[in-house]
Amino acid sequence: MNHTMISAQHVTKRFTEPVEFVVLDDVSIDVQKGEFVVLVGPSGSGKTTLMYTLSTLDTEYDGDIEIDNTTIRSLSKNQLATFRNTMIGFVFQFHYLLPDFTVLENVMLPAQRLGIWSEEEMEHRAMEKLALLGVADQASKKSNKLSGGQQQRVAIARALVNEPKILFGDEPTGNLDTKNTDIVLDILQDLKTEFNQTILMVTHDTAFARRADRIISIRDGRIVE
Hints:
Helix content is 36%, strand content 27%. It is an alpha/beta fold and 225 residues long.
């Protein structure tokens, strides 16, 4: 049975600087549990704004967004922060690892922020995710000693450490060569296939987009067929 993990209804987003303009114009989409969806469109189309809005990083919009049957607008600021930490993982074009921390310490950070497990449990969960991503042997290294591809895999492990229901990504392969892009795409496919992970990503990469279950094209703030 399908379960709607993300539901956006009539979402409109306006920017007011330097002049007022509509960046998302009456957007409605649903994403099902276990679905791998990519957002594509030209620069300035609104795809990244939509991803940030759906992932609760941007809460200034008109319309309604539900994640796993929770209405985002019903949450207080503190409730939203906890909800985001529990439900959502993020992977960005830049890995944003802390260079003076080890790989293991970087991956544990979201779990420490959530604050519901012992240190031993957090370390165990972090090592599990590093093993899943094929970089457990790098756990004790400082993150700045890794290759770009390894760093992005560590960033994905960090995004997964709290076992989020949805993994969001903004151009996660944008800085990677073809070989490492293929590795990351294989990892995302495995997450979907083996763990029924819901994935929503923004990309310019047509090869990346073709690996998804569904492509949503955006132009001038509207979904186009």
